Amino acid sequence: MEVSLQRSRLWNDVVEQTKVAKEKGVDPLLWALQMSSSLSSSGVALPSTELAHVLVNYICWDNNIPILWKFLDKALMMKIVPPLLVLALLSQRVMKSIDATLNLSEIFGLQAMDPGILVVEFIFSIVWQLLDASLDDEGLLELTEGRVSMWAIKPQEMEIDGHDIYDEKKIEYHERLRNFNTTMAIEIIGQFLQNKVTSRILYLARRNMSTHWVAFIQSLQLLGANSAALKNSKALTSEALLELTSDSRIVLSRECKTSSLQKFHAIMAFGSLVSSAGLCHGSSHSDLWLPLDLVLEDAMDGYLVNTTSAIEIITGLVKTLQAINGTNWHDTFLGLWITSLRLVQRERDPIEGPVPRLDTRLCMLLSIIILVAADLIEEEEEEEEEGAFDETEYGFTNHWKEKNFARNRRENLVSSLQVLGDYQGLLAPPQYVVSVANQAAARAMLFVSGINVGSTYFECINMKDMPINCSGNMRHLIVEACIARNLLDTSAYFWPGYVNGRINQLPYSVPAQAPGWSSFMKGAPLTSVMTNALVSNPASSLAELEKIFDIAVNGSDDEKISAATILCGASLIRGWNIQEYTVQFITRLMSPPVPADFAGSDSHLIDYAPMLNVLIVGIASVDCVQIFSLHGLVPQLACSLMPICEVFGTCIPNVSWTLPTGEEISPHAVFSNAFALLLKLWRFNHPPIEHGVGDVPTVGSQLTPEYLLLVRNSHLLSSENIHKDRNKRRLSEVASCSSPQPVFLDSFPKLKVWYRQHQRCIAATLSGLVHGTTVHQTVDGLLNMIFRKINRGSQSITSVTSGSSSSSGLGNEDNSLKPMLPAWDILEAVPYVVDAALTACAHGRLSPRELATGLKDLADFLPASLATIVSYFSAEVSRSVWKPVVMNGMDWPSPAANLSNVEEHIKKILAATGVDVPRLAAGGSSPATLPLPLAAFVSLTITYKIDKASERFLNLAGPALEYLAADCPWPCMPIVASLWTQKAKRWFDFLVFSASRTVFLHNSDAVVQLLKSCFTATLGLNIAPISSNGGVGALLGHGFGSHFCGGISPVAPGILYLRVYRSMRDIVFITEEVVSLLMHSVREIACGGMLKEKLEKLKTSKNGMRYEQISLAAAMTRVKLAAFLAASLVWLSGGLGLVQSLIKETLPSWFISVHRSGREEGSGLVAMLGGYALAYFTVLCGAFAWGVDSSSSASKRRPKILGTHMEFLASALDGKISLGCDGATWRAYVSGFVSLMVGCTPNWVLEVDVDVLRRLSKGLRQWNEEELALALLGIGGVGTMGAAAELIIEKDCDS
Asked: Residue 1283 and residue 201: Cα distance in Å, rounded?
């Protein structure tokens, strides 16, 4: 305590001694000598930190006079205070002083006392004060909303003397001086914006003080448009001043002095559609959109029922590709049209089978893609409106912004459609839509001719009767779809070349009472003739659909059925202009409201049975299910089907309803149709591996009833935050209309019981049947019903015993009597019935033919039982406990008739991949065998007729049969295909293609070979360099079918992979293989023919440097294409989970591992290109999964995974992690990855920890990547703004 008091008195004496010296004017050197002597005698160690604090505290700022600063200077010279500590203490005091004087923290709202931040605020404030003072001088300040400046710009607001002036000459002089000062101030503003250092610092203000920057720019634009002084300036013009503040002018990094950035520019230059087309052989502007091609084609998989709207997926992908490719919106929209047109042209004549046909592809082009464009345009225009609102709120309106940027995307949409007319090869309509395209062209021609006709005219005339050629193409259909959604107006009809001419009058008139939409809207009754006409022709407007929907809700029973039939007709399949409304109305009708006068004890849904059945049957086709999936309505559709299944599944079938067609339906029929459709919406029929059996479930295993309801409920929960998202707004409206409350599986107890039984059946051997229970009695009754004609001696065939069930049969009952039980009770008993029948067949008590006939009788009695039969057979096949049976043509059907033919066609299909097809039978003589459950299942399915009535149930059983056969040893699937092709010869192509896919499911090496074929085809590596084609065309080819080249032709590897990957058990290994193939492709590109030949030319060329740049740019173009493909394959194969595993685990392991050292020629180039390839690959994977912005739900997971990866990069740069890869590869990867983040995904940088960004910046500077380091800090937010400012100043000092 005493020591502390002594030290306190000592420093008080120092202050007093200094004060006396100040007053007496003592020489500073003498003061320093005396102070040094005094402190030394007092035992204070010099230099003294305590003295530094005392002196700085004394001087700042109460004693801020020159002599004291001289005292401090001599103290530094005499080393009695630490210099660095004094500077640090002074800098803090200076910062606080500047901030307090100018109120910078209060004005800008930034409290961090970072020197760099203060520099940004200070420079920004100076320029803004000059601006406001200039506006005030010219009387323009009052034109702003605020009318006053936030700065002290008037003399009375400053601490300066003012003098009254009465002399006229002095007044005139001061006026000239003021005008001169105003001009000088404006020119100084221009110099601030032009100067290399200050312009970059102002860029930091623009990024991190956006609200204030917009206000500043508004004032600057006001000055530029109205300043007289600026017009008189010889150094600066109004246009030049505004250009200095444009997006293209104010940038952080203007130079690319570092070598890696110079090389990386070649990648970034792969931007516009025109310039990139000639960069390398084998690529074109089409390759920019390769990921979109793959996503669109993937959506055509009939086994994919997606819970996420294709509109949302494609919109996010388009924004990602636009950012990564750096294209403008004209090229982006043009790429979108070209890609979707390729999708249609790829399958102009699709193969026959239970797969999506042309309707689904046309839905994608003419509905989904149009809605994507509409969402993109609305997003921009809503942002501009909100921006204008915010700006008005702050007291200004950004007129300049509106003039230059408003409707930018809309205008680019128009220009892209005008240019699209040049792509005639893509615009040729498939035969299926030729007449519709011709009508669209005729409509435009009549409008241009000044002739106004209704839709009925086109429903009645033949285009051949038109006096001039009205041949339409796909662009006419696209334009009509855009006009219907207000993206275009009818001025598009006047585009050059859009119509072929004009006419003066119509060929003939239309009957006034012709049935059609026009007469219906005028009040014509909904007769059978009218209904047929409306079913055959799609509605052309929302008003027409709304009238039909109103009839479906409020009309008579017969009118409701007619309205439902109409909605499920051409308006659903071909009503592309209003398709989103059609699917919404159908979905809403699936959940009809409770009538106001309803008083029954049963569900009100029973009264709607006929209408509901018409709707369910009407949308049960493969194409219709895919259309609902593309529009994102699968979750809501499932939610609507569940109560229908619950209600009609509990009804005793003692009632029926007669449809207008005369068909009679029962509760069992309604239930079966609804249940079959519900099961198509989730992957219930997949092998047990999908349900968690095994370490790595494949993609899609989350598609369960609970998950579908969870997604549907999320549409309700997000209703408060969807005003910015047009697609989510649509989904929320549909969900709210059907049920405004969340729905859970517990609301459907019968469905939940069946679902749990289904899960138990898959997980374990069937058990639990207790003798004498209701279920046991139901089992006996069903066995007696389906095997009533079969008897073996004295024992009924139904008296069978297996390890899982026991039934004695009911021989004394009337076997012709069908159980009058609710459907749910029957479904509960079906597994035991099938188990008993299969056991009897295995023991020879039941012949295979009798087994198939009995199961078919069961399925005919209750079609929904087919689902439980599928569930049982799926489980039993996977258990491998049943002996195989010989498909010999006597007991079981034989595939021998065309098995060898199937094998040859499989080889043709896979010819382009280089994959070896295993022989179907060794030596061709071994008998064909199948596991008993699979043999029974295929025998059951081939008993069905291939007609419309059986289609919806075959669509349920078909995929299950394929997955079961694929899960069995080779060659089970070819045998199944051979059996089915004997029944359905027109499905031959489809069945053989399905069989060919199983080659990859049994051999991981074949999958790797397929992936390699994808890279080889896309990059054109297997073709001579001069004639290399590659690209999207080689990857996806012409789809699949025997309509090309006079028979089945090899299928492009991309198509094969898209139809295979969902069934692969192990997806995780794909990432490692794709990375390996990507690096192998880089070596081929760098050391292969094209680049090697061009590098040889450099030795003798006069323009060697120019050719080197072209050659490097061409190589990097192909590298980028390889990265596009690699990222697309990983994302499609495993979605978000696989991408995050890649970034978090696979890539760090790859960089740490030691790889083969490159001793071959060009190894340095290979290493560099490899690093850039991995950088592109990683950013693309992340962008595909997370998006480039924060609009998707997946983006919420981005900060954690991205932060982990950035921490890995920073730690490696810090030397904390030892790397095994080539140093050039690592450097190229880091610089490329950071460059892409800075240039393409700046929002990501804001999510990274500030300390990590600083460490990364430091590491980049050690590589002499100052520009990149600065760019990274510049977009890192307020946390890195200070460091960025310091780096800018430091670079200027070094230069």
From this structure: 11
The one-letter code for the residue type at 622 is V
Residue 221 amino acid letter: Q
Bridge partners (DSSP) of residue 796 are 791
Give the separation between CA 308 and CA 731, rounded to whole angstroms: 10
Angle among Cα 521, 526, 529 to the nearest 5 degrees reads 110
Map residue 272 onto helix, strand or coil: coil
- From 1089, 951, 936, select the one nearest 282 (Cα to Cα): 1089
Can you list the positions of beta strands (E) in 804-902?
806-807, 884-886
- Of the candidates 877, 850, 1053, 1059, the residue with the CA atom closest to the CA atom of residue 961: 877
Radius of gyration of the chain (CA): 38
**Spatial distance between the Cα atoms of 10 and 457, rounded to a whole number of angstroms:** 107
pLDDT tens track for 708-760: 999 999 888 755 555 567 888 889 888 888 888 899 999 999 999 999 988 88
Angle between helices 726-738 and 579-589 (to 10 degrees): 20
**Calpha distance 525→1045 (Å, rounded):** 51
3-state SS, residue 1053: helix
Q: CA distances (Å), 753 to each of 286, 861, 1128, in order? A: 51, 21, 40
472-500 in b/e form (b: 16+ CB < 10 A) is bbbbbbbbbbbbbbebbeeebbebeebbe
DSSP string, 466-512: SSS-----HHHHHHHHHHHTTSS-GGGGGSTTSSS---SS-SSPPPT
Q: What is the DSSP letter of 365?
A: I
Q: What is the pTM for the complete model shown?
A: 0.87
Q: Phi, psi at residue 730, to the nearest 5°?
A: -60, -50
User: Quick check: helix, strand or coil at residue 543?
Assistant: helix
Residue showing tokens 């850039």: 1172
Q: What pLDDT digit, counting tens, does each position of 360-416 carry?
A: 999 999 999 999 999 999 988 887 766 554 443 333 333 333 334 445 899 999 999
Residue 869 to residue 879: CA distance in whole angstroms? 16
Give which of 253, 55, 374 is closest to 1271, Cα–Cα: 253
